[in-house]
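anyone seen this seq b4? input:
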Amino acid sequence: MNNAPIRSNNESIQQKSASARGKVSRRGFLGGTAIGLAVASFPIASRAASPSEVVRVALLGAGSKGSQLASFFNKADGAKIVMVADPDITRAKKTADLYNAVGVKDLRMAIDSSDVDAVVIATCDHWHCLAAVWALEAGKDVYVEKPLGHNQWEGRQVVNGAKKYNRIVQLGTQQRSDPIQAEARKFLHEERGLGEIKYVQANRLGVRAPIGKRSTPLPFPKDVDRNLWFGPAEVKPMFRDQLHYDWHWDWNTGTGEMGNWGVHILDDVRNVAYQDQQSLPSKFTVGGGRVGWDDAGDTPNLHFAALETDSFPTMIALSNLATMPNGKENWRAVTGENWPADPPGSGYVIVCEGGFYLGQRSNGKAVDLDGKTIREFRSGTDIIEAHVVNFIDAVQSRDASMLNAPIENGHYSTGWCNLANVAFRAGGSFSEEQLVDGIDFEAWPKLIQTMTNQLAQYGEKVGSLRSCPTLAYDAKTECFVGDHAESANELGMHGYRDGFELRAVS
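predicted toks r here
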């Protein structure tokens, strides 16, 4: 095996130390939001290297997702795991040992190593963008898990960094490497198999359990470096039962179910329904809450949003509750007449004049208004393997146009979810009148009704929820505008701790 290194075109970048990385001020946050949004085709640094050269990969984050990705990267032709970083040093070394790699606790050691060509970022959400920008500054290529970032400002810095440092950057929305996506687009838009699209309903209706609620703070595991685990996030006590994974349901470190599954599903919607022609919605109207559980989480386990665009609207319905306490059956969200009998609980329904397209991971189905199946779409593709190979091929060829999930596109798909989260957090007391005011598509009130009617099984009323009046969004400046914009824009920013600052990239 040829282990010749893939060298950066800028050795001074690669030698840059973590301690020298800059800071961003409050003014920097505000100024950075105005950066243009055009999808750019930019040149990639060339290198005199053959495709046989091995891409030496460092895994940042050795949890379940990171360990899964490591196995795919290490078996991909032209790639090898050489380092694993995780603040839980036991996890880092355990995973590293599988690949005869080096295990470290500080991801900066991997980022700054001259023995690493590319990084795979599978950390907690709050680390994604900082780790990505640091890696780009160090001359590394980047594969980063979804969601791209905690907020739109920091995601934009990754997009800018990919361009500035001429790096290959792919988002981990693996379904972008599934060929049935292109087949569905052709059926809907070229063949017009179901006629005009009226609206889209995205669903993530999947049962989860409460995360517990302690009376005393969770002791930090002895093998985990507390300072590195929190990194750019606020260091504060946690009152849930476990450290790992359940960080998803804490705004300090995660983005809730909207950022966890919502990015996958809404990325599919942008791809198949909008053909990637819609960067971000122009209006957000949101309701939801954390109900039915008395636990330490603060992200909603019930979340629904109307996302308006220049063409047709998309709604998303998320629920982690069962139809009844201690049950296993998912909630349902029915918004149209002749609704399909088997809509995906994790997927989307494109509602058309002549029927419905039911899309989900690795399969899809078109049905007419009578429920008859018109066409089925199935794929035998291992989408994770295909996505990893796609990234490695792009890295070896230095051709970003090969990427199935280029980072700016991923930035937009993440934005649909990040901004829906901001709208939820900017809300106040629940008002159905507030939610429907000014929205003229009839499916939205039906979605609100079908979601809230199921609360009764938990002894909850709609007053337990919160809602936000419609927020207007300017995709050119990546800022909310108009009524209530100031508070929403404040929530869309993120402070960084000393030593873990993310600076603006321009």
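The CA atoms of residues 95 and 279 lie 37 Å apart. Residues 1-52 have pLDDT under 50 and may be disordered. kinda curious what u guys think
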